[in-house]
Amino acid sequence: MTKNDTAGSNVSVRAGSEPTADLTREGVTEISKELRHLLADVFALYVKTKNFHWHMSGVHFRDYHLLLDEHADQIFAMADDVAERTRKIGGNTLRSIGDIAKHQRLRDNDRESFSPKNMLIELRTDNRELTRFLRLAHEICEEHNDVATASLIENWIDQTERRSWFLSEIVSGQ
Question: pLDDT tens digit string along 121-145?
Answer without folding.
Answer: 999 999 999 999 999 999 999 999 9
